[in-house]
Amino acid sequence: MKDNVIVKLENVSKKFDDKYVIKNFSLDIYEGEFITLLGSSGCGKTTVLRMISGLENVTSGKVYIDSKDVTNVDATKREVNTIFQNFALFPKMTVKENVAFGLRMKKVEEKEIEKKVSFAIDLVKLKGYENRYPHDLSGGQQQRVAIARGIVMNPKVLLLDESLCSLDLKLRKSMQIELKKLQKKLGITFIYVTHAQDEALSMSDRIAIINKGDIVQLDTPENIYNHPKNVFVADFIGEANIIPAKVIKKIDGGINVKMLENFLIDIKTEEEFEKGEDIKVVVRPEDIAVSKNELVGSIKGVIIDSTYSGNSTNLIIDIPGDFDIKVSTTDESKFRENENVYIKFDSNKIVPLRK
Q1: How far apart are CA 111 and CA 299, in angstroms?
Q2: Is 98 strand, coil or helix?
Q3: Helix, strand, or coil here: 149?
Q4: pLDDT of 2 strictly over 70
Q5: Which of 76, 126, 230, 304 is deepest in the core (most CB within 10 A)?
């Protein structure tokens, strides 16, 4: 990822029927990065994408692409291409004709079109499918045609709007890998919009989590998962135990807190918390040890649900104080419902957050 800002959104706002969907939204996107705009339906992420593409006019603010102000530039004249959720392939055109369509609209010479189309089709591994029609292709193959049609124009930025959501789970996982490989090979900036956390975590260099038109955290997938900035992010990304707690005292390099009735634990943190402050602590299910035998510093509970998911067993454990804790374990022990067990928190993996 380079340091050059390829897309800059400067205090952009978008209003529909006198209601702001996006207000004073700013974001720098770097050349060659894969960035994902992640959020639930209606949060504004697709509106941001459409303002970058020019398919949606901004109410106020500025949009820059490669340092050029394109705020009032027509969508057809911006150096971006968009791949939509439904692929938008022409049903009566072959794969080759679909990929070549944009080049022909720009009146590129036929010799150059042949060369570019052949390169793009080969890149998405569809060689031999040139003369097939969309209805002869699988969903994954149609997705590849849409990608080839996007990259053949050699855009500075490729925009992808929920582009994998219509594929089945196995194919979606496969295409996540292929998209990331392709993006690295081409070096084109990808801006991906999705509500699927697994897609964002597996493909992105950075993720912008959007809620009600605002970025609530912009960071690497690892930092967003392991170091959420607030309760919303912790709850939105993956599974998490969000537990009320109270700061008992400050300690060297962290705080001592009380949670789950009378359980005391030291937590490392650089954040400043006050003695007596009510906070929330976040613990991921995989960061909690579970055992049928009592552990030092553990809490006794009862399994109220046990689900096997292939590579792990997901437990819900009822703790005194009527609090349910989610635990994910790869321990091969057979954990059964109504069984007494002991859980132990990894204090290094607990994240304290202001309430």
Answers
A1: 72
A2: helix
A3: helix
A4: no
A5: 126
